[in-house]
Amino acid sequence: MRPRGRTRRATLWVALMMSFALVVAACGDDDAADTTAATQAPTTTAAPTTTAAPGTTVAGETTTTTTTQAPATTAPAAPREMVFATSVGAPSLDPYNEISDARMRRSPLMYDALVDWTNDFGVSPGLAESWEYDGNILRFHLREGVVFHNGAPMTSADVVYSLGKILESPGSGFYSQIVNVTATDDFTVEVEVSAPSDALLAALGGRYAYIVPEGAVEDYDLAVTAVGTGPFMVDEFAQGEFLRLTKNPSHWRSNEVGLDVLTIVVVPDEASIAAGLRTGEIDAALFEDARIADLVEGTEGITVFEEVAARWDILDFPAFDVEPWNNTKFRQAIVAAIDPSAVMALAINGRGTLLGGHPPALWASLPYEDAPYAAQNLELAATLLAESGVDPATPLKLISIQGYGALNSSAEVIADQLGDLGLNVEIEVQELGTWIDSFLARGFDTFTMNAWGGWIDPDMVYFNHLHMLPDGKDFRKWDNQEVSDLLDEARGTTDRATREALYIQIQELTAEEVPWFPLYSANFVGAYGDNVGNWGVHPSGYYHDLRWVTVSG
Amino acid sequence: MTVGEILAPLESGPPPDDVVLDVRGLRTQLSTSRGANWIQIIRDVSFTLRRNQRLAIVGESGSGKSVTALSIMRLLDKSASEITGEVWIGGEDAQAMSDRQMRRIRGRRVAMIFQDPMTSLNPVKRIGDQIVAAMRLHSDISQKDAMAEALRLLKEVQIPAPEQRLRSYPHELSGGMRQRVMIALALSMEPEVIIADEPTTALDVTVQAQVMRLLKERVESHGAATILITHDLGLVAGFAEFVLVMYAGRIVERGPIERVLLDPAHPYTAGLLASLCTLDTDPLEELPSIEGAPPRPDDVPSGCSFHPRCWMATDLCRTERPPMVEGASPDLGAAECHFAWNVVPPGAGT
Amino acid sequence: MSLIPGSVISQLVDQAAGSDPEKLAEMEAFLGLDRPWYAQLGSWLANVVQGDLGNSWRSRIPVADLLGPRLMVTLQLSAMATVISSLVLGIPGGLIAAAYKSRWPDSVVRVVSLLALSVPVFWMGSMLILVFSVWFNWSPPLTWVSPFEDFGANMRMMILPAIALGLAGAAPLVRMTRNSILEVMGQNYIRTARSTGATEGRIRFRHALRNAIIPVVTSAGLQFGFLIGGAVVIEEVFSLPGVGRLLLQAISQRDFPVVQACVLTIGIFLIFLNIAVDILYAYLDPRIKLGD
B294 in helix, strand or coil? Predict the structure, then answer.
């Protein structure tokens, strides 16, 4: 009686197993197909260039397209393509309206600025071959023979037009010294400034300071395409997905450009980036979460690297107007109780640099060893706390920002370490928009975590933040005459050595008076396959150096 | 051929060719909870059914009639039932068959009509499709021919607008119509035996009569032997040629219909008959009925299982199981009672 | 949406460059944020009716351009996941569990489905990616291709996310199918079918399944809606350019036109889905008539 329907049920099983096997087989096929096709993948992705050209992209691309494809038809040499992955997508490509760091990182691939950044945040010639200060006139001598992606030659009129757009951009504050811009001839532009400034020159090397042909903002949709003079042209931009660039053969440094096709893919889950690196789908990547690097570290054929970065996380005291935050000894006690190396170990797996002031990637940085309260000293902290006269039982609120994993981890460690000092710290995580609104309104009444970066000159770091009203914003309500004088003095010269000494002095002052406390600078952590060469990361994190990357095989 | 031959079970080996169903010593146990709590429902049932015969199995609910039918068809949940005995169908013992062989018996040789036409048809399949599917299980008939045959059968069971009904779903039909469909379904497989389990219980009285008449006509014209399972002796009278009376899982009386109705040999049969309303019943007089209820299958009394309710019971009945006592002539059948053939009607003695 | 703290303005202004109140006010006026919420809603609705979803505040790209290509991805993902969770996993799983009721295959199916239910979707996704990359040295392609353009490439990209999503959705369907089948197998018409000599397989597939499937279809349909929620997470993990990812990104950027368009689209889609389920329901169960 038992064996009723054994065969029938067996059929059911077999059917099920088969459907499962099909799925596995399908994947298996892909597996085989893909490992061989990994390097060929570019061929398929590069192919649509011709179809994409008429619609979305700029005129003149068609000619380029044929040039890049020419080798494919005449010689078997495959286009040199690299796939670069990041978890951060650019909402748009608009150089004058899009404020995200992700857009700024991508812009130097498609656009040139008047000057180019060097790795120590100095400047080198860009679209301007040379420049000089002549009193309050900053004169640029433009490079001749430069052609925009749309085929138009670049002249001073384009630069004047572009600077006008730059001054209307959300980042106009970086260029606030500019009073007037005029073209004296086709290849000379005179910028009238309120005072000669190195910071302005650096600011003209990136962020919003890109040069487009006259009328481009009106004629093109710069949110989804790019019309610059840069080494790459936009083949296709799919917001939140990928940006595919093809080499600009008429770029003035085109012989140094190592790639025919550069695809920047947005992979939100960084574990997937690690997987893609392993399988060769991805050639190179920068990680936002440094811990992901551990997933590929030690894998054959993959190199993991760290580079110093001009970004840092700080503990900020933006409430000098309320008890107990107006008490310098209390602030000193707090920071003396903090062990930045422990914070860094937990927040970013120790992949970073300890700080005395701003990070060493930006010039004029105060070393960790030279800052008075940088290293943990609990005895000193206890003494300072006692001297401050603040009741340790007062409950303290530490604000952190939602979505910033490293800040939140840091806040936990800090709260814990302050607990050792006998303080009672509670963490409140705020939404970014809320936090920004409070910060800009100078509305904080307690201490907060803060993430800094994107500055290319120490003046940008300190002037706005520390100078007394009305010239600066003085977000901490510090109202300090000494630091304001130092900042003014540094603005008064363009001599790098003098400025360096002044900014060191300012950092010594902030280290002593503690309007903020630098915790660590998270290094850029990335990985690349064996086929990738000549790649470094600019301390700004911008993709400048992808211009010169080479791929083999 | 005598009635005695018809009703007396055969001894062993395959029955003669004209016997379409021969049940020998059937015993069925059911489990109330999967493999535990076994209860004996059918205790030694034997009977023989020959070609074209119409047999009725009568008894109160719980007497084991339906379980007998399901045991013959092997439709009881296997993990919760245990069947012994022999069931000879078409010269083979169905109890010894494989599942596959048994499936060929079902429908093709023995078809069933179930009690509740409202739920016994698949609600999401069209009537025609259900009949055609059953037909094509057992023959190579084409879909088209099968559909034509289904239409013919629907006409035969007197369903109005049969062309439309072929495309109807069961819920679009009344109970009587659905039972006609069930009859057509059973007939469509051209079985040798049709077991109709309380086919009219769920129907209105007027519809009952129509359906019974139709069933009788159809089985006669199709030459199928029939087992009518019912609790209603009134239905039996107009339909069956022979009767088996079941009580507590046993056959307590068997015989030709006229004899059983006119001269019951078992007090239980007499009790059932007395409770029947006839034309000469005085409408003001309360009908006598058998006192008490049939025993629970898990608590069957010793001796004669009917004795607690029997007005004739003696100590003998309580202790000793009665033998099957044949009538004066084998044609009269037999009854399992210590006082068989000498029955006093209920109420008469007391 | 307006109740979510933080404003798009603060995200449109580069704070590193410093920002002055004048600029903020100007921006607010430009975006129409200085008007009361009902006026904003009114003009939005008026535009939507005319087929204009507006421009993204953040990127100034027309919302329709952002949403259009992503709709396809999410629909495909949800549809594949629904097929996997119902046809590939849920219903067969339920059938097996029912056929082997209370024996080991039943237990296996039930334990596995419970596990699948307990595991977060994103974790399942990450694990699939890691397992395939480490064991098979295979990872899904990075850029999405329409199935009409290159079916193979599309499938390579979609199969893992669909499986991850489908696994999560399968568990309730397994349980539902199992119970439904067991219930239906006890029905009288199944006994009738048996009495006609139909095989057990035929009974299960031809007679029981369709009846048992009716409640399952309803919940599979609702499941589809649930899967769209899961799709948000899965799209992130597998970097699929779908509506979910767009919505997530738009919310974090306070990009209301995009959020509104996403929500509207998902809403319309769910309405259509409900209608579709109703139609399918009526098709599966003749006792239900449309229009009654």
Answer: coil
Angle in degrees, 0-180, between the axes of helices C243-252 and C256-284, rounded to the nearest 10: 150
Whole-complex ipTM = 0.81
Residues in chain A with CB shorter than 8 Å from the CB of B99 are: 3-5
**Residue A521, φ and ψ in degrees, nearest 5:** -110, 120
Q: Chain B contact for C191, CB < 8 A?
A: yes
Q: Chain-wide mean pLDDT for chain B? A: 84
Specify whether the CB–CB gap between C232 and C81 falls below 8 A: no
Which is higher by pLDDT, A405 or A9?
A405
For residue A67, what is the enclosing H or E element?
A: helix A61-74
Q: A with C: how many residue pairs have Cβ under 8 Å apart?
A: 190
Which residue is closest to A276 within chain C, CA to CA? C139
Q: Which chain C residues are within 8 Å of B112, Cβ to Cβ?
A: 192, 195
Q: Do C287 and B103 touch (CB under 8 A)?
A: no
Confirm if B290 and B268 have CB atoms less than 8 A apart. Answer: yes
- For residues A538 and C288, give the distance between their C-alpha atoms in angstroms, rounded to a whole number: 68
CB contact under 8 A, C197 and B75: no
CATH of B3-109+191-336, one of 3.50.50.60, 3.40.50.300, 2.160.10.10, 1.10.10.10: 3.40.50.300
Task: Give the CATH H-level superfamily of domain C71-284.
Answer: MetI-like (1.10.3720.10)
For the ranges A223-237, A321-335, C122-136, the lowest mean pLDDT is seen at C122-136
Query: What pLDDT score was predicted for residue C16?
Result: 52
* Residue, of B186 and C102, whose pLDDT is higher: B186
**Mutate which of B82, B83, B99, B102 to disrupt the A interface (most A C-beta within 10 Å)?**
B99
Pick B169's closest partner by Cβ from C192, C193, C286. C286
Strand, coil or helix: A48: coil
Lowest mean pLDDT segment, chosen from A16-25, A297-306, C177-186: A16-25
Report in angstroms the alpha-carbon separations of C268 from B245, C55, C273, C274.
67, 20, 9, 10
Q: What pLDDT does A146 receive? A: 95
Q: Would you say C57 and C225 are in contact if contact means Cβ atoms under 8 Å apart? A: no
Backbone angle region of B88, left / alpha / beta, with phi > 0 → left and psi within -120 to 50 → alpha: beta
Asked if A269 and C12 come within 8 Å (Cβ–Cβ), the reply is no
B89 touches chain C (CB under 8 A): no
Rounded to whole angstroms, how far apart are CA atoms B178 and A416?
78
A8 and chain B in contact, CB less than 8 A: no
**A256 three-class SS:** helix
Nearest Cβ partner of C194 from B75, B169, B171? B75
**Distance between CA atoms of residues A372 and A517, nearest Å:** 11
Please report the pLDDT score of residue C50 as a whole number. Answer: 79
CA A30 to CA A34: how far, in whole Å?
6
Domain regions of chain B by residue span: 3-109+191-336
Q: How far is CA B133 from CA A341, A399, B107, B137, C196, in A?
A: 79, 73, 12, 6, 9
* Residue C267: Cβ within 10 Å count: 10
Q: Does A4 contact B at CB distance below 8 Å? A: yes
Which burial class, exposed, middle or buried, applies to A254 when counting CB atoms under 10 A from its CB (0-12, 13-18, 19+)? exposed
Q: Which of A26, A265, A436 sits opposite C142 (nearest CB)?
A: A265
Contact C211 B124 (CB under 8 A): yes
**Cα A262 from Cα B43, distance rounded (Å):** 87
Among the listed residues B30, A460, B221, the one whose alpha carbon sits nearest the alpha carbon of residue B213: B221
Interchain proximity A171–C17, CB inside 8 Å: yes
CA distances from A310 to A491, A516, B283, B287 (A): 21, 17, 110, 107
Instruction: Please state the pTM of the whole predicted model.
Output: 0.69
